[in-house]
Structure formats: structure tokens, C-alpha cells
Amino acid sequence: MGNKRLFFLMSGLVCFFILMGLTLGNRGPMTWPEKFVKDSISWTQGLFYRPSAAIAGFFEDIRQLRVIYEENKTLKLTLTQYARDTQRLNELEAQNKRLMEELGFTERQRQQNNYTYRIAEVVTIDPDPYNSTVTINLGDKDGIKENMAVMTVDGLVGRVSKVFGFHSNVQLLTETTDTDNSSKAIAVTVKGNENQPFGMIESYDPKTGELVMNKVEHADDMKVGDTIITSGLGQVFPKGIEVGTITSIGPGEFGITYKVMVKPKASFSHIREVFVVEVPKVE
């Protein structure tokens, strides 16, 4: 009987509250018991609403964190791709600039000398600092022969030492392991000098980074700052290729000839493209 009484009492209260809600719009100001009941119900609803809203907001924040994580992951991938594309673009622009300069160089050279310039890319560099050798991507199939001169836009860098089917080794002027200087001597002269003083580039001084020019008989026809070019008399290097600039002139061995130090025109570090000079055959 106690449960039934409680049930009827709760049903009556609910009906009472419903009737109050329906009649509030047609009545005047609420009495204090009505206000008390209204405030009590609102306060009770607030006790349940605030925790439920906090829980719902917590799960919403977790969902937003997941969305932010996925967006951040996508942005990182996009940024990485952008950086890679930017680097590739910079490399292509630099390569295009170099090739444009080299194209203009070969056009000027064709007007001066009847040589063929075969452009090649450096594919490997010998890590041995005393064995200055690089490998280019032209070989026997391209008509490359041993002892062909190799140069850059700035000047002479070396000669072809070995030829393979698709690649060739280039011995740079900075080579210091070869004790036979005569095998890599370069006959040179002074550019624009009518007397054409003669000398031989025979070695490289790694301490000063300069080429050593020996067998100079008439140093009076030379001065510091003159440009040294190949003379074409050595039957290996064609005539007219710039080698370097004279930095000093002094006495040579036994005081009979002079020793001239030459700063190379070309840079031997970070070589990317070179020209193999092909001299036309003379019948």
C-alpha cells in the first residue's frame, strides 16, 4: 500500500506541474510557491545538464583532435612535396642557366677554332685527393678517344685518360700521383703576344693551388696577369684553350730557364658539365 500511495502522490505532483505550466500564460504574476517550485526544477535540471554537456563536449573535442591530426598529417606531406619540388626547380633553373652559358661559349669557340665540343656530364668523382680523376658519361660509342682535351666554360681542366664503352675517365690538371711529367705536359704560350713565348705546364702545386710552367726561355715576353693558353704544339691539346693567369715569374732549375706559376682559370671543385674537344682529322 505504501508504494501505491507514493505512486499516486508522484502522479499527482506531475499533473499539478503540468497544469501549472498550461495556466501560467493566462495568469498574472506567479505566487512565491510557484516561483519556488520553478526554481527548484530549474536547479535540478541544471545538475544533470552541466555534467552531460561536459561529457558531450569532451567527446566532441576528441573528434576535433582526430580531425586536426589528419589535417596536420596532410599538410606535412604537402609541405614535404612542395620543398622537394622547389629544390628540383632550383636545380633545373641552375642547370638551364649553366647550359645557356655553355651554349653561348661553344658558339664563340666555333667562330675562333674549327673544333667540335662534345658536352658531357660528370657522373663520378674519385674520392682520393691525390688521384684527381672524374668520370664522364661519354665513351667509345660517342667517338671519344684517349688524350682528348677536356675543358669547362672557364678553361682547360684535363685530358681523357681512359675510354670505355659508355664512359671515360678524365685526368685533371691537379693530378699529382703521376711521376712521369712528360706524359701530361701541356705546351702553352701567352695569349695575344706576337712573340709567342713558349713553355710547358708540367705539374701542379697542391699547396698553392697553382700550375707550374717550366722550360720558359724568354721571360721578358711575359708579365704577371698575362693569360696562358694552349699553343697546339704538343699534338695533344688543341690551340687556343685558356689555361690560367700568370701569378709569378722566377728562376727555374739550374738558372738556365724560368719557372712561371699559373693560377688555373677553371675550378676543379664541383665540376658538373665539361666539354671534350674533338679536333678534326687532317688528311
UniProtKB/TrEMBL annotation:
GO terms classed as biological process: regulation of cell shape
Top-level taxon in the UniProt lineage: Bacteria
One Pfam family this sequence matches: MreC
One CC-aspect GO term: plasma membrane
Keywords: Cell shape, Coiled coil
Coiled coil feature spans: 82-109
InterPro entries to which the protein is assigned, alphabetical: Cell/Rod_1, Cell/Rod_MreC_2, MreC, MreC_beta-barrel_core
Domain spans labelled Rod shape-determining protein MreC beta-barrel core: 122-278
Similarity comment text for this entry: Belongs to the MreC family.
Function: Involved in formation and maintenance of cell shape.
UniProt protein name: Cell shape-determining protein MreC
